[in-house]
Amino acid sequence: MSMLKEFKEFAMRGNVLDMAVGVVIGAAFGKIVTSLVNDVIMPPLGWVTGGIDFSAMKVVIRPADNSNPAHKIPEIAIAYGSFINSILAFLIVAFAIFLLIKIVNKFYTKAAAATPPEVVLLTEIRDLLKNRQ
Fold first, then answer.
1. Quick one: which H or E segment has residue 43?
2. Would the pTM of this model clear 0.85, i.e. be above it?
3. CB distance 29 to 93 below 8 Å
4. Calpha distance 13→9 (Å, rounded)
5. 30: Cβ contacts below 8 Å, ≥ 6 apart
6. Residues whose CB falls within 8 Å of the CB of residue 66, separated by 6 or more in sequence, listed in order
7. Residue 7, Cβ neighbours under 10 Å: how many?
8. Mean pLDDT for the chain?
9. pLDDT digit string (tens) for 23-82?
């Protein structure tokens, strides 16, 4: 029973719950980025490159053989187009996270840089007292 209690304490820690939320949001964000790459970015990119569809690009090692219906042999291919799509999705996610972190850091820098009015007033009083002497 002690191990079950330990596990419950571990699982209910704030960091574990935060990580679980991050994983769920990350999975949803991954689906959004996949749709962005496949449905928004790749069609114009394919059009610019002359109608090339990256997702269909592959090197066929062994073609499919459907001549015998009882014993169909599937195609064996290296789908490097899917790999290109994955690289583009990664770059888009990395850039989006970079922009998000840059914005958050800018916000925190402004918040930290703002001097409280009490400190400004005390600084002015100090400066006035220095000038008086």
1. helix 42-48
2. no
3. yes
4. 6
5. 89, 93
6. 72, 73
7. 10
8. 82
9. 888 888 878 877 877 788 778 877 887 776 677 889 999 998 888 888 888 899 998 988
CA distance 131 to 3: 69
Q: Which residues contact 76 (CB under 8 A, 6 or more apart)?
A: 60, 61, 62
Q: Are 60 and 75 in contact (CB under 8 A)?
A: yes
Q: Could you tell me if 32 and 87 are in contact, meaning their C-beta atoms sit under 8 angstroms apart? A: no
Cα 55 to Cα 45: distance, rounded to the nearest angstrom: 12
Q: Copy the structure tokens of residue 46.
A: 């394919």
Is 70 exceeded by the pLDDT of residue 18?
yes
Q: Report CA 81 to chain centroid distance, whole Å.
A: 21
- Distance between CA atoms of 9 and 26, rounded to whole angstroms? 25
